Please model this.
Amino acid sequence: MDVLSVQGQGALYTAIVLIAVIIVVHGIKLARIGYRTLGKKLPPDPPPEDKEPREPVYFLVERKKRRPKTEYSAPRRIDFKK
Model:
């Protein structure tokens, strides 16, 4: 006795194959990344920090200047041709 119809079985098999392909592709990608990192060396230890404090750094910032106000002339009348 079939639980699923033919279309349901096809959809189920398609989903199973899709999930299997996704797992295989991601597994291959992760294996390539891991293989590339095998030959790399770890970065050297960081240099020891100095005991004396560093001098502070000051930035010179110029203030924004206001634009001079422009004076507008009296409004002109515009005549549209009919």
The chain has a mean pLDDT of 85. The first helix runs from residue 6 to 38. DSSP finds one helix and no strands in the chain.
